[in-house]
Specification:
seven-stranded mixed beta sheet; Rossmann fold; 7 helices; alpha/beta; about 30% helix; SAM-dependent_MTases_sf; single chain
Length: about 270
């Protein structure tokens, strides 16, 4: 299940081959940052499109404005940004993205501006980004932001938002806390549920952050805060036929990486 919380600023393939090393993000982001991870993120993007009907933005102002200045935080190689014109073909879009590591950025493009930046810090004043974006999007940084850092991150994002602009935060929970796996009938899923709890808590992160985004946005002084949930069925439960095997591989790849970073096993 993924939750997308939007808010307006008030106007007044598993295997035994070792994975490559990180590219400058070790210690800041639990998942890796190398070319294989970019490939996984691209496949993950296609999977999420299959479960959201291809919607990348659900903010109200995409219907109200035909010109949008958009920022994607945690942009990786810019896949999400480059796909946005598909959803909004009649809009004039100015696309910007930031990521904690720039090693895997594609060559510079006139269509997408990508910059290296840690969103736990304010945007540099020299960039002129204060109060400049109509939409700020951030997706799946559940393993990149510690629990105590979320208010700071949101504050930094708000500073880049125009009055009347929207922030869209998208986070997921792989095993729902509302429907816990029965250890007797679904022991492996139960173990994975324990692992997702342990893996995040052990690094100061919150696996349940998706359910807390709305409150965090309100605490930051934002208005018109709403939450929209999408069910992401993995494996046999995937909505699209071509995503049944693909999504199962994504699941395994993600948890395999965590297993390599956490001492001990179940």
């Amino acid at each position: 299940m993924a939750s997308a919380a939007t808010a307006s600023r008030p106007v007044a393939v598993t295997g035994s081959v070792p994975l490559p090393s990180f590219s400058g993000t070790e210690g800041a982001y639990m998942l890796p940052h190398h070319q294989q991870e970019i490939d996984r993120l691209t496949r993950q993007h296609r999977f999420m499109n299959s479960t959201t009907g291809g919607q990348l933005l659900i903010t109200p102002n995409i219907k109200e404005k035909k010109e949008l200045r958009v920022l994607d935080c945690g942009a990786a190689d810019g896949t999400w940004l480059r796909d946005l014109p598909r959803q909004l073909p009649d809009h004039k879009l100015e696309l910007h993205g930031v990521d904690i590591g720039s090693t895997l950025f594609p060559p510079p493009s006139a269509d997408v501006d990508l910059r290296e930046h840690d969103i736990r810090r304010p945007f540099p004043a020299s960039w002129g980004w204060q109060s400049s974006f109509d939409v700020i999007h951030q997706r799946l940084l559940i393993w990149g932001i510690k629990s105590v850092e979320w208010p700071v991150v949101i504050k930094n994002l708000v500073e880049g938002l125009k009055p009347g602009g929207y922030i869209q935060l998208v986070e997921a929970e792989w095993i729902s806390h509302d429907k816990p796996a029965d250890p007797a009938t679904r022991p492996q899923l139960h173990k994975q549920a324990l692992m997702q709890e342990w893996s995040t808590a052990g690094f100061g992160m919150d696996i349940h952050i998706a359910y807390k985004l709305e409150g965090l946005l309100k605490d930051a002084g934002l208005e018109d805060v709403t939450t929209v949930q999408f069910d992401h069925g993995y494996g046999a439960l995937a909505k699209a036929e071509d995503q049944k095997n693909a999504s199962a591989e994504l699941w395994v790849e993600c948890f395999r990486t965590l297993d390599e970073k956490i001492p001990g096993t179940f």
